[in-house]
């Protein structure tokens, strides 16, 4: 299984998932269709599926055009999300396959939008799994609660995504890592994992490289929104429960001007 980053717009990422045996490919959030087609041609792949994480234009806005350019392509999106040009609506737990070796599991991860879907991908035994989290889970951050509650984001981040295997690679929808880690260090100034990852991210961005992917294991070490079960984090922000802590940290992040 091969995964290609395709930077789009100012700070978005689309991704191409390639089954190497058959050269069949899926693309996540193809907001710039001509760019996607160029990458497909360069890699000699046959585009079969669009996996849309949510309905916002910077993720779903290329679906219509891509469908015109590749008429047989299937466009997947959450059943509650009114995704542009969607041909196949997904529920939590729906399964898809790509080529010979790739399996795709639809995970409903609502809050940023009502019908937000994250896609959990497994390949051959030697491949680490991957999850495409759109604007639910960012590296060291999470999406704004546009259409949901702190309870939902807790369930999406800490239960649904948090229960995936620790080595699962995390591919998110935007390059927000440096800002997120700078904020995370205000929540936990003494967290060495955060300061180390921030230095690493600064180096990556200096050379124009993506900071994606992370792993679920790393997120539990460095992402304040996934650490809300820890008593010391709850205490730091003056809260008594994980959900209340998540709500408070999101509020602090919304107000933060780093």
Q: Explain this structure to me?
A:
There is one protein chain. The mean pLDDT is 97. A hairpin with a 2-residue loop joins strand 11 (137-138) and strand 12 (141-142). This protein is α/β, with parallel strands linked by helices and 258 residues long. The protein contains 9 helices and 14 strands. Helix 4 (150-161) packs across helix 9 and helix 5 (177-187) packs antiparallel against helix 6. A 6-stranded mixed beta sheet has the order 1-2-3-4-5-6, covered by helices on one side. The protein has helices spanning 33-42, 57-60, 63-69, 150-161, 177-187, 192-206, 216-222, 231-236, 242-255, and strands at residues 2-8, 12-19, 24-28, 46-51, 74-78, 88-90, 95-98, 102-108, 117-122, 130-134, 137-138, 141-142, 169-172, 214-215. It comes from Salvia divinorum. Its EC number is 3.1.2.6. InterPro entries: Clx_II_MBL, HAGH_C, Hydroxyacylglutathione_Hdrlase, Metallo-B-lactamas, RibonucZ/Hydroxyglut_hydro.
């Amino acid at each position: 299984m091969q995964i290609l980053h395709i930077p789009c717009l100012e700070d978005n990422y689309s991704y191409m998932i390639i089954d190497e045996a058959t050269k069949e490919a899926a693309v996540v959030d193809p907001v710039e269709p001509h760019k996607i087609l160029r990458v497909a041609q360069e890699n000699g792949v046959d585009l079969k599926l669009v996996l849309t994480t949510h309905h916002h234009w910077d993720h779903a806005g290329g679906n219509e055009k891509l469908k015109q350019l590749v008429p047989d392509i299937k466009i997947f999106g959450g059943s509650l999300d009114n995704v542009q040009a969607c041909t196949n609506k997904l529920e939590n737990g729906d399964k898809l396959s790509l080529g010979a070796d790739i399996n795709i599991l639809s995970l409903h991860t609502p809050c940023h939008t009502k019908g937000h879907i994250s896609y959990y991908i497994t390949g051959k035994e030697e491949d680490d799994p991957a999850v495409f989290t759109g604007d639910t889970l960012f590296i060291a951050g999470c999406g704004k609660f546009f259409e949901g509650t702190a309870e939902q984001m807790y369930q999406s981040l800490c239960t649904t995504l948090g229960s995936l295997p620790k080595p699962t690679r995390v591919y998110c929808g935007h390059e927000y890592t440096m800002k997120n880690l700078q904020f995370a260090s205000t929540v936990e100034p003494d967290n060495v994992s955060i300061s180390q990852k921030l230095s690493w991210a600064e180096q990556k961005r200096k050379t124009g490289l993506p900071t994606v992917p992370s792993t679920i294991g790393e997120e539990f070490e460095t992402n304040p929104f996934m650490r809300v079960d820890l008593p010391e984090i709850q205490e730091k922000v003056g809260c008594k429960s994980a959900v209340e802590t998540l709500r408070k940290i999101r509020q602090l992040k919304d107000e933060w001007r780093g």
